[in-house]
Amino acid sequence: MKTPHMCAMSRRVRRAAGSGALGVALLLAGCVGGDGDGKAKPARGDTTCDGRIEGTQSITVWFHAGQSGELSTLRSQVAEFNKAQKQVRVELVTLPEQRPYTELVLSAAASGELPDLLDFDGPYLYSYAWSGKLRPIDSCVPEKVRKDLLPSIRRQGTYAGRLWGVGTFDSGLGLYVRPSVLEKAGVRIPKGAEDAWTASELTGILRKLRKEGYRAPLDLNYFDSSHPDEWDTYAFAPAVWSAGGDLIDPETFRTADGFLNGPESVRALTTLQDWVKEGFVDPNKDHAAFTKGRTPISWMGHWRYPEFSKAHPDDVALVPLPDFGKGSATGMGSWQWGIPAGSADGDAVWRFIEFLLRPEQVNRMTEANGAIPATNSAVKLSPQYGGSGAERLFIEQLRDGTARPRPQTPAYPAITGAFARAFAKIITKSPVKKTLDQAVEAIDKDLAAHDGYPQSGP
What is the C-alpha to C-alpha distance for residues 9 and 6, in angstroms, rounded to an integer? Predict the structure, then answer.
């Protein structure tokens, strides 16, 4: 296998961009998901890796052009890997992170021109695997490496009982709070998921904080309801799960009816809507409600911790998302590495992935982007996440099951699109049940149009 010259890569990218609609259509699929236990089992026919590398190999790697720290770190890792050995040479191609990247990936998948190693947002793994665009990697991952991965990483990478992807970092979601403000108001500070605030308790806290002078004490971080995106699903599906609802039938993945529009889901999203109606939620148009001190509580992910702690030194703590009735729940999942279908030498590709999973390499990346290390060995090296680190809660949530993956079905693109649009309407005061009924109709229409997407694939 030879790596194409950069001019050939450019032609490949231009062709992919031209067929974006076809790629998007390809991804909108759904079927029965994996067992979700994170224990991917080697399956017959998995020949991705055979334990040897034939000759000298060159592999192309596509990477989203995310924050500069991620990209510069990966470039450095590629250079170090190439210098350390001569059998496998990595050539890195970076593409935009937002819509252009996704469109290029989907278009390349449709035209059979994906690279040898691809990174992609974790929840999309199930559609790629179902449609035959990824190769399973059970045969590549040694048991020692598998056991070192956080359970959330194994779970996210599993579909239909097989492992298809791994990440070098995971994500965390919770409430950032100002302890000094809460203590002054006489508000207790939860220690973990087992004593999370209930949703009704949080409502009372918001009222109490308003009396303390905080007009809109909660930052939900919904920035632009006219352009719903993946944040809406990642951030607010946990409220639905916590109430006992779901985005789709978690057993069959054949319908959203009775789940997304069930009484539990309606109750959870009505609570969020009520907070907005009562004026407890800062519109946060400047993205600085917490840093500027307007709100002492922020519903946010791990990536804001450095900024928040800098704005309020020694006065930022993490607590779980509220319990809407069935225990606190939270989000998980981030970018993953997968091996696309094709002629690439799986062992050559895995050698590079395995390099990226070394504890020191995982820590290099997570120190650059602030994310959660994907392996237990790397967590031990992290001052933020290991031991009694300030962000230890995120690790606990990923290990104890508080964190849940987004629906593990190839229907996920349709699900997240429908949910995000519904949430954007609900948060701007549209009728909750009616809006969720419309979302269910869109999801079930997609499923019906594709016969439920049988597990055997398209």
Answer: 5
| Cα–Cα dist 248/219, whole Å | 28
DSSP summary character for residue 197: P
What is the rounded distance in angstroms from the CA atom of residue 303 to the CA atom of residue 153? 18
**3-state class of 76 per DSSP?**
helix
CA dist., res. 307 & res. 435, Å (int):
35
3-state DSSP percent of the chain in helix, strand and coil, to 5: 45, 15, 40
HEC sequence for 330-353: EECCCEEEEEECCCCCHHHHHHHH
Model confidence over 66-123: pLDDT tens digits?
666 899 999 999 999 999 999 999 999 988 765 677 788 888 888 888 999 999 999 9
**Using CA atoms, how far apart are residues 406 and 429, in angstroms rounded to an integer?**
25
pLDDT in tens, 191-203: 999 999 999 999 9
Q: Give mean pLDDT, residues 257-274.
A: 98
Higher model confidence: residue 189 or residue 226?
189
pLDDT over 90 (residue 456): no
Cα separation, 430 vs 421, whole angstroms? 11
With 80 as the cut, is the pLDDT of residue 42 above it? no
Q: Give the alpha-carbon dihedral of 437, 443, 445, 451, to 10 degrees.
A: -140
- Computed over its alpha carbons, how large is the radius of gyration of the chain? 22
Position of tokens 């559609």? 127
- N-terminal to C-terminal alpha carbon distance within the chain: 28
What's the CA gap between 224 and 229, in Å, rounded?
A: 9
Q: Please give the order of strands across the beta sheet that includes 57-65.
A: 88-96, 57-65, 117-121, 335-340, 134-135
Beta strand 297-301 with 218-219 is: parallel
